[in-house]
Amino acid sequence: MLSIGIAADHGGFCLKEELGAALRAAGYTVKDFGARSLEKDDDYPDFIVPLANAVASGELERGIAVCGSGVGASIIANKIAGVRAALVHDVFSAHQGVEDDNMNILCLGGRVIGNALAADLVRTFLGARFSGAPRHMRRLAAIDALERKM
Questions:
Q1: Which residues belong to the active site?
Q2: DSSP H helical segments within the chain, as ranges?
Q3: Contact between 106 and 64 (Cβ < 8 Å)
Q4: Which residues partner with 32 through β-bridges?
Q5: Backbone angle region of 58, left / alpha / beta, with phi > 0 → left and psi within -120 to 50 → alpha
C-alpha cells in the first residue's frame, strides 16, 4: 500500500476527517498533518506545506490536501519543488494526472464536492500509476529543470 498524507484547513476539515477514516478503514497508513480541530481562523499553508514537504522528500508517496475550494491548497503545494499537485473534481483527471503527469498530491475543495465523489476521486488517484511514457518523462524533465532554476 502507498504511504499517504492528508492535510486540511477549516474549509476542508470535515472532508479530511471523513477521507482519513475511510482510508484507514481500507488498510492505508495515513499521516495526518492537521488541522486537528475545526478552527475557523486557521491558515491552509500551516498544514499543506508540511504535507507537501513530506511528499517531495519521499517520506510519503502521495498526499491529499483539502481547503474550502481546493485552490489555495493547490497553489501552496505547488510552491514546493518536487510536488505535482492539482485541484481535481472529476474521475478522469484523478487518474490521468497520475498516469501522464505523475501527480503526487490530490487537492480537493471541501466546500465544493460531496464526500462520495471525494472518496471516488481519492480511490482513483491512489489506484493510478505513472505510465513512464517517453513524452511524459520529457515533460517532467522540463518541470524539474524549471524548478532547479528557481
A1: 67
A2: 13-25, 45-57, 71-77, 91-101, 115-127, 134-149
A3: yes
A4: 6
A5: left
pLDDT of res. 2: 85
Report how far residue 98's alpha carbon sits from residue 33's, in angstroms, rounded to the nearest whole number: 22
Question: Which grid coordinates are listed for 118?
Answer: 471525494
At 39-53, the pLDDT tens digits run 999 999 999 999 999
The CATH number of whichever domain residue 110 belongs to comes to 3.40.1400.10
Burial 22-58 (b: 16+ CB within 10 A, else e): bbeeeebebbbbbbeeeeeebebbebbbbbbbbbbee
Domain that holds residue 56: 4-149
Provide the number of structural domains found in the chain.
1
Q: What is the C-alpha separation between 138 and 109, in angstroms, rounded? A: 30
